[in-house]
Amino acid sequence: MITLPNECYYEIFNNLQHNYKTLFSCALVNREWCRFIIPILWSEPRRYFSDTRLIRICLLTLNAEEQAFLIPFKISLPSYSKPLFEYTSYITSVSEFLFEGIKNWLRYNKYSRGLGNVVKHSLITMFLRTGKNLKYLYIDETICSPIILEYFYKNSTVNTVDFVPSYDINDDFKSKAIDGLNENIIGST
């Protein structure tokens, strides 16, 4: 049996990056192909963030600290085993569709919509912690906290942030959050 160099596999599968069904089928062929394909499938989830199944997988990636943030709100996390891959480490952009997916997940699991910011906070923190390839982040100012700012400082891969302002939090914290994000992004370029 003849095997191709890894670079060839990567090129072949990368040319199929927008053909999700074909890539998914190829990922089931063998472990070697799967290791090439999973990073490609998970690099740009875009609108798929609105799917509750994707949110459930992301929630499985939360560490103890991120899970602890949800405990006071009686949010039950999925009880499935940890995924085989750390899928979130392959994601290059987190779009506004994440927030739509969180709303869908809350509705599906019969939680109050008011818990959306708590879940957003935990997931954004997790994306910043695990995002080895994260370049773009859409973030809502209402969830900006010292913990998230700390992870921004630690994550040097983010180079574009859509920072959506909110007018229901105090101006002092708002300006500190914006200053912290600006400092981090400007300092890393």
Description of the structure:
The protein folds into 2 domains: 1-41; 44-188, no CATH class. The chain is 51% helix and 6% strand. Helix 2 runs antiparallel to helix 3, helix 4 (52-59) packs across helix 6 and helix 7 (116-130) runs parallel beside helix 8. It has a 3-stranded parallel β-sheet with strand order 1-2-3, with no helix packed on it. It is mostly helical.
In order across it, which strands form the biggest sheet? 1-2-3
The helix/strand class is mainly alpha
Q: Residue share in helices? A: 40-55%
- Low-confidence runs: none
| Mean pLDDT over the residues | 85
User: How many extended strands?
Assistant: 3
Alpha plus pi helix count: 9
What does the main sheet amount to?
3 strands, parallel
Task: Provide a concise account of the structure shown.
51% of the residues lie in helices and 6% in strands. The chain is mainly alpha-helical. β2, α8 and β3 form a beta-alpha-beta unit.
What would the keywords be for this entry?
189 residues; mainly alpha; 2 domains; 3 strands; globular; 51% helix; 3-stranded parallel beta sheet
